[in-house]
Amino acid sequence: MSAPNRNTLWGRAIAEELAAAGVEAVCVAPGSRSTPLTVAVAEHPQLEVLSHLDERSAAFFALGRGRRAGVPTALVCTSGTATANFYPAILEASESRVPLVALTADRPPELHDSGANQTTDQRDLYGDAVRYHRTLPEPEPDARKLRSLRTTVDRAVAEATGTPAGPVHLNVPF
């Protein structure tokens, strides 16, 4: 797989694995940090993209869709406080056993704890409300890391649809 830059490569790999694992739709609340994911899911022919201006609305829409369809709907948002707006729907998905895959864009590690605007510790943001959570490695055009990324996305979807079904969280540094 080739891409114009590392972030694009990572976004495309994530989109491909989501589709391969059975995700059919992605609710996107676009922001600058999440652009690689937003573009990747929008370009993927097997993923329906549902754009929302508000993260909380996107999350509850995905929850309702997951409840109706029985398959996880993915969520994408930018970093910082935007991620907190997914939390009420993630709690509801956990209690209702509805599969959901939350993908939160994040700053690279060197910008954590830097006092930069919109810096939020997103690594364990949703606590025990999620069945599985991982912070993905930084994008890198390395075959081993790409395989690991794909495996992690596959595992996340499997955990979301496992017993009991529920939400999962992948934190994606760009």
Descriptive report:
The chain has 5 helices and 6 strands. It is α/β, with parallel strands linked by helices. The protein has a 6-stranded parallel sheet with strand order 2-1-3-4-6-5, sandwiched between helices. Helix 1 packs across helix 2 and helix 3 (55-69) runs parallel beside helix 4 (87-96). The protein is globular and about 40 Å long.
Task: Name some characteristics of this structure.
6-stranded parallel sheet; alpha/beta; 174 residues; 18% strand
Radius of gyration: 14 Å
Mean pLDDT: 92
Beta-strand content: 15-25%
Taking pLDDT < 50 over at least 5 consecutive residues as the criterion, the unreliable ranges are none
Shape: globular
- Which structural category fits the helices and strands? alpha/beta
> Helix proportion of residues, in percent?
25-40%
Helix and strand pattern: HEHEHEHEEHE
Q: How many strands, which pairing sense, and closed or not: the largest β-sheet?
A: 6 strands, parallel
SS field, number of helical segments: 5
Largest beta sheet: strand ordering: 2-1-3-4-6-5
**Total beta-strand segments:** 6
N-to-C terminal Cα separation, in Å? 18 Å
What's a concise summary of this model?
The protein has 174 residues and is of the alpha/beta class.
